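Justification of resources, computational component.

The compute hours requested in this renewal are based largely on the per-chain cost of generating structure records like the one below. Each record pairs the submitted sequence with a full structure-token output. That output is archived, and it is also reused by downstream analysis tasks.
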Amino acid sequence: MGRMAKKCAASESCSLPVDVILQSSDSGPIARTSKCTVMLFLSQDPQFHQMEMSSSSLKIIQLMLCFTHNMPPPDLSLLDIQTLFALGETVNLKYSMHYASECVSKEINKRAATHTKPLEILVYKIKVSDLSMIDEIARRTMDIPMENAVNLLVDLETFRIWVRYRDKWQSMLAQYREALTDYSQSHSNVTPITLLVKVIPTGEIIFPTLFCK
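The structure output for this chain reads:
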């Protein structure tokens, strides 16, 4: 094993006894922290002397530990999207750290409207079962060619759901455009959004509904 850190990896000011060792996946660096702080936030009981995290990098471990101390959370807006995904998978799938999970979800949702690869965000949200804003994000993927989508949506059931959503969306969009063409000239008081509500009622096509079936 590598050389042990003398202080808690999360905070220089942490004075609690260091009794948990976390080993990262990148060249074996080790971070140390206090079991009593970790136990407050993790759903799983780590081993008293060592908790292996072989698939998490030292950076992800250190970010995760920041959520186990009485200190301001790290500024997630400074992280690139792939690091956010990695942190989100760790706090969601491995240790069920609800506060950290919520912080990651909010930051990803902030970026969802402008991110150039919305399908990556959709894949992440499905993977960690985060349904917040998933319908809005799914609609940003409707113009993505199917051959590109199948490369990211590697789970066949997820791909099937995406195809069903895309088919429904395209059908509704065609109805909307037809309605807009037919009625906009003869009904000057009808706005595009009014027609959209008439053609696509609230809740008609919701990605979480398809996903949960």
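DSSP finds ten helices and three strands in the chain. Residues 1-5, 199-206 have pLDDT under 50 and may be disordered.
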